[in-house]
TrEMBL record:
One example of a Gene Ontology biological process annotation: L-leucine catabolic process
One Pfam family it belongs to: HMGL-like
UniProt enzyme class: lyase
Gene Ontology MF, one: metal ion binding
EC numbers for this chain: 4.1.3.4
Annotated InterPro entries: Aldolase_TIM, HMG_CoA_lyase_AS, HMGL, PYR_CT
Identification of the protein by name: hydroxymethylglutaryl-CoA lyase
């Protein structure tokens, strides 16, 4: 059997949290449904953060209520604190993601507290979720650079990864929030983190601001990572990282991985259509090169 990479689709959360326009809940639900139907095994659905901080996802409970109970995909949601966890569980979430940063300044801007304070706040959230049998992912932002501080030391990232993993996270996602990392740095950081967290529990989360995301994923896959985050049509950015573009496009990642002979379970043509659909709905450019190329080929061949 071919080696498999699990793609974690973050478009409905990481993508839509950064849209200026309000996307109706029904459209978010339809996006999630279409993504799951493409064969994506994990589609992050929404986020139970403070609606004052991220009003774009204030309808999180409504979105969760609209998810097909027979969906084949897992649908984790973001939670920043105990209140978020309670809201998420009440809305039916069975899988959650907490988030911290490797940069003090970003931690304050994103969660209004220091790194240590955020870890203190998250420990009981992780423990409560895990005790209830929920799977917990831990995100770390700014792993390859910070919009406020510039360089971030790999040791700072490893320390947060260790803290989240030892607190009970099942998986740690390394976020290049401002898309500034290059393959050598990404590979080296992954190797450092794998000294503390088993490689199979590590995920990579690249934004494409500097055009390095696919190269970074290739380097990390070569290094052994088998979980990659991405966003359909390259939706997204980060409200607390000015100038950050969207996540690497899922269509591009799937094309890369299939070209390497790796399995994803994703139907790339269906995904390209979904990327086209949401880009049209949002009246924004489709930021997937592979998606655009495939759509052009499909329209020429009439499929
Ligand atoms: C962490 C806090 C809550 C601290 O924010 P705070 O203002 O310090 O919190 P607070 O506890 O003082 O609460 C302030 C108000 O928010 C309410 N509140 C508090 N919590 C919740 C909640 N869960 N749900 C609903 N309401 C909540 C709370 O009840 C209160 O309401 P008031 O009494 O004023 O009416 C805030 O900073 C926050 O929500 N931050 C989230 C920011 C965010 O969502 N950023 C984007 C996600 S991270 C990301 O995108 C990066 C990632 C993961 O993709 C990886 C990468 O690329 O780097």
């Amino acid at each position: 059997m071919a080696d498999r990479v699990t793609i974690v689709e973050v478009g409905p959360r990481d993508g839509l949290q950064n849209e200026q326009q309000v996307v109706p809940a029904a459209e978010k639900i339809e996006l999630i449904r279409r993504l799951a139907a493409c064969g994506l095994p994990v589609v992050e659905a929404t986020s139970f953060v403070s609606p004052k901080w991220v009003p774009q996802l204030a309808d999180a409970a409504e979105v969760m209520a609209g998810i097909d109970p027979d969906t084949p995909a897992r649908h984790p949601v973001l939670v920043p604190n105990m209140k978020g966890l309670e809201r998420a569980v009440a809305a039916g979430a069975t899988e959650v993601a907490v988030f911290a940063a490797a940069s003090e300044s970003f931690s304050r801007r994103n969660t209004n507290c220091s790194i240590d304070e955020s870890l203190e706040r998250l420990r009981p959230v992780i423990a409560t979720a895990a005790d209830a049998g929920h799977r917990v992912r831990g995100y770390i932002s700014c792993v390859l650079g910070c919009p406020y501080e510039g360089e971030i030391s790999p040791a700072a990232v490893v320390a947060v990864a260790e803290a989240l993993y030892s607190a009970g996270c099942d998986e740690i996602s390394l976020g290049d929030t401002i898309g500034i990392g290059t393959p050598h740095a990404a590979r080296t950081l992954l190797r450092d983190c794998a000294g503390s967290v088993p490689m199979e529990r590590l995920a990579v989360h690249f934004h494409d601001t500097w055009g390095q995301a696919l190269a970074n994923i290739l380097a990390c896959v070569e290094e052994g990572v088998r979980i990659a985050d991405s966003s359909v049509a390259g939706l997204g950015g980060c409200p607390y990282a000015r100038g950050a573009t969207g996540n690497v496009a899922t269509e591009d990642v799937v094309y890369l991985l299939h070209g390497l002979g790796l399995e994803t379970g994703v139907d790339l043509e269906a995904l390209a259509r979904t990327g086209d659909w949401i880009s049209t709905r949002l009246n924004r450019d489709n930021n997937s090169r592979a998606g655009r190329a495939l759509l052009a080929r499909m329209s020429t061949s009439g499929t």
